[in-house]
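Batch manifest, entry 17 of 40.
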Amino acid sequence: MSARSAVLAAVWLAAAVVACGHAAPFAPGVYTPAGPLGTGAALRLTYNPGTDLAPLWLPGGAGAGGILYAAERVDRADHDRCFAILPPVGGAIERYVCRTSAADDSVDVFENAALAADGRIAYVRVSSHRLPGRPISPDVQALVVATLADPNDVRVLRPLAYTAPPPSGRIHQAISHIGWVAPSRLVYLGERVTYPQACSGCPRDTVRTGIEIVTLDFAAASPVLSVVPGTDSASSVAVGTTGDTIYFTRNGDSRVYRLGFSSGQTDTVHDFGVAGIARDVGFANGRLVAVVGGDVTYTADTVLGASQVDHGGELHVVTLATGAETVLGDSSSRFRRPALSSDGTRLATELWANGRADLWLLDVP
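Output type: structure tokens
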């Protein structure tokens, strides 16, 4: 019996016991679980009929704080993707934050959030009108910063798309893997976005391919962008123990790299070898996590440029001090955007199946 079936069976059994005891009838109201929907080393966190993305640990580690993520609101006609917060061990959603309090004529999306130590949040805000015949690309999108207490009270740091500063000069149509390297300095991945169609009647896919890593300093009124040297074709980036170090992966590459800003030096910290292409790197408490292999294809066209189509892969965790490598979960599953808790003992991640994602919580041995 699956974990969800076990939970449902327990609910029906509890209802039967109440009925036999002739207790008071149920009153109208909203009934939600108060705790995790199950136990064990692998725990499903979300049961949303929509797609749940990009989990992020709030301060407090694996046993406190909470998990913030982007939740598709299928209960609203506009299907906005809002911030939602869960307890750190799963359970009922404690808070929703959306662009609007009710459905409207546009799809508003919050994505790729990163949290600073002082409670500020940086994220990408996207809006697209739901009118027939409109382009598939977003109408408006921007990198913004706000407080977690009020994510809608934003300062716009960088509208998208934009042309990266010299020597790059390439167009960044999207960004992801945002991290804080200082109180007024962010690092992130600049991306190219394409919408390929497998056949004339097939729905279009959205393929985001990393171009290079960028830092954004917003201490002054006008934020300053800088392309990080030596990060061409990067596919993900994560901040190390201090803001002076970042870890990153490259398109079509099985290795994880480490770069020190002060030294300007880059080295290889781990190679997943025949396991496959590494991406979606994360770091916490001396451990690396990455998505490796699975359903990913890298191609490089001399005219169209590089493209990495990624529908998820295996989860690999590496303890840097020893080089020990562990594969988590079912190797046939398709994971994306894993996030280690600050103590490195638990991992929240997207699990993709049938074109949508739920969030799962995994123990890290």
